[in-house]
Amino acid sequence: MSAALALRVSPEAPQNPASGEKAALTPEAIGALATACLRLEVDTWPKPGLVSHVDNGSHADMDAALLHRSAGVLEPFFAAIAKAAGAGADMDRLRGVGMAAEAEMLAATGGVNTHRGAIFGLGLLCAAAALRNAREPTLGATVSRRWGRAIHEGPAALHSHGSRAGRRYGASGARGEAATGFPSVYMLGAPALDEGLRLAPHDLEAARVQAIFALIAGVADTNILHRGGAEGLAFAQRRAAEFLDRGGVGAPGWRESAARVHDEFVLRQLSPGGSADLLSMSLFVRAVERPARSVRSEFDHAREAQ
């Protein structure tokens, strides 16, 4: 027989009885939340060109099961990054944990890059979550203030698809996003989650669809640039913007409209992998920074009985 596992992304921190303030999340809770956000990204559909529980999008080398396995492997590393940051680790130490996470990911996926961008960006947000305090209003502000310079000056992945596309087309990519405090998360992804909840208050998946379309429309996604060049990026941004302009997830028949855009991306072999990472990050910051209004979702994992 099979069983269903319902996951709620709602990390209510324990109360500090002396101050009445919420105590910090433990590293283990931070790691679990980060992994939950990665899994929620996978289990969102329709999202143009990307792998989901429905199909493999524009990818011949990965599917939803592989992405779920990768996310599970990364959970202890996200916790380790949070623990290291809480102990005062510098960027070199955090980078070392990230490199170990990437090696474990590649071992688990047979060499397929499922979550390299998420290890970097979501990992930094996990580190910031371990250091959260009232003086820094957002996790992005913590990342930028504490590690922004080190991110700019640190080694780049010269031979990755994203870095090559970024150099060719002048896109700042993941490093620029992180060093400046994740503006795409705070200006596009997270507000679109709120808008999606307003437009479809009883459909939590719809909020994530609204967010991925907003990110695709507004981000110079280096994964799209790698696959489709400037023309591919212009097409992707235009089609995503048209979906939003017609009312997004508040429009009648929005799922069918979004699915048509997905099919168009697959036909052109476009995949907004950077936007997918930013969706996971947007879910994470909303859950950590607004626990009383956190974006919650439930999804089922079919498990065969032994």
Automatic annotation (TrEMBL):
Fetch the InterPro entries from UniProt: CitG, TriPribosyl-deP-CoA_syn
Q: What is its EC number?
A: 2.4.2.52
Enumerate the UniProt keywords alphabetically.
Answer: ATP-binding, Glycosyltransferase, Nucleotide-binding, Transferase
Q: What is this protein called?
A: Probable 2-(5''-triphosphoribosyl)-3'-dephosphocoenzyme-A synthase
Q: Which family does the record claim for this protein?
A: Belongs to the CitG/MdcB family.
Q: Tell me the superkingdom of the source.
A: Bacteria
Q: Does the keyword Transferase apply?
A: yes
Q: What does this protein do?
A: Involved in the formation of 2-(5''-phosphoribosyl)-3'-dephosphocoenzyme-A, the prosthetic group of the acyl-carrier protein of the malonate decarboxylase.
Catalysed reaction, written as an equation: 3'-dephospho-CoA + ATP = 2'-(5''-triphospho-alpha-D-ribosyl)-3'-dephospho-CoA + adenine
Task: Please name the GO terms of the biological process aspect recorded for this protein, alphabetically.
Answer: prosthetic group biosynthetic process
Q: Name one GO molecular function term.
A: ATP binding
NCBIfam families linked:
malonate_mdcB (TIGR03132)
Annotated region described as Disordered, given as residue ranges: 1-22
